[in-house]
């Protein structure tokens, strides 16, 4: 069972929502953020290194201090304003004609520690520490994490009623073509009922934002330890999430490019693949994997259809069934000698949102030697892994569209 609560959201006035809201901190580098940031963009708060000339070290204390300064300025200028009462919020996103409807809420850090909020990835200590400092310095969750919950018909009905009967507080299309729609749930009885329903939901699942979730939990623990009168109801115990019904979410492919063939010629490499795969050359036209255990490979200007042979994977194992596992075991480790995906400099990862043309480009440029495209992981696979306490291999899931940062913020500053 999970514990959630409404909150007094800090958010932009309607006329500024599309300008203030930005892409999240981890999908663009500092130079890209500097080029993209308008005067009121939240990028000045979540990537404040862009306000220095030249761009400063994002982990320096002056940058953390600048984030606090900018957050205060945005509120002083009225570019961010706090609601007077505690609400839940509906945050919907539209991509390729498909809309997913999430609830912006506050979740309790103890649910993460107890496992009621379930993860499927490991976190890197350096990234976790960086996010922790941002949250601690701001005393706010500037960017939400992205959760999923098991479908619930009553929640669906509540959301549908509000969306169909109440004008959206925000409704804009970002520069990437994705639509963002936002409603404040002002009915106190409805807010109370949402809290009650989620108290009966067995678990939430981290879809995107493992580092932010872990960082928020660390902040909650630290502030609880400093408070001799801690009760567990304090605002610092809660952090911001947008939580979607699992059935509405779509995971797209997360692909791999490698710098070399481990001393093999292309002909030798193709021959080595045949021990575990059925290999078919398909030509210069891009080939997209069609099913689980089917891969596409781009090598020497040609696309190949690779299908793993029976007996080379374990569909009864929540980790063994994953195509990232199959590729890692049979190709990256066995043939190319790339055993540790987290540390190897011979491999890189390309989110499917960039398209398979990006794989071709990186190989054709000479930067990479070969590329592999994978069939996307399903939400069922993700939930099975989280429920069994397993951890996915690195760079397995890519969720799209990303939540915009700055649509709503949670503060726990007294």
List keywords for this structure.
single chain; alpha+beta; nine-stranded mixed sheet; globular
Descriptive notes:
It is a single chain. This protein has 414 residues and is α+β, with helices and mostly antiparallel strands. The protein has 13 helices and 21 strands. Helix 6 (125-138) crosses helix 9.
How would you summarize this macromolecular structure in one to three sentences?
With about 425 residues, the protein is of the alpha+beta class.
Give the overall shape, derived from the CA principal axes.
Answer: globular
- List the total number of helices: 13
Computed Rg: 23 Å
Strand content: 15-25%
Described by its quaternary structure, the protein is single chain
Structural class: alpha+beta
Low-confidence stretches: none
pLDDT averaged residue by residue: 95
Q: Please give the number of β-strands.
A: 21
Main β-sheet: number of strands, strand sense, barrel status?
A: 9 strands, mixed
Share in helix? 25-40%
How far apart the termini lie comes to 28 Å
Chain-wise SSE layout:
Elements: E1 4-5, E2 10-11, H1 17-20, H2 30-36, H3 43-46, H4 61-76, E3 81-82, E4 88-95, E5 98-108, H5 109-114, E6 117-118, H6 125-138, E7 140-141, E8 145-149, H7 153-165, E9 170-173, E10 179-185, H8 188-198, E11 204-208, H9 210-226, E12 238-245, E13 251-252, E14 254-258, H10 266-273, E15 277-283, E16 294-299, E17 302-308, H11 323-333, E18 347-351, H12 356-364, E19 370-373, H13 379-387, E20 398-399, E21 410-411
Parallel strand pairs: 6-11, 8-12
Antiparallel strand pairs: 1-5, 2-3, 4-5, 4-10, 5-12, 7-21, 8-11, 9-10, 13-20, 14-18, 14-19, 15-17, 16-17, 16-19
Helix pairs in contact: 4-6, 6-9
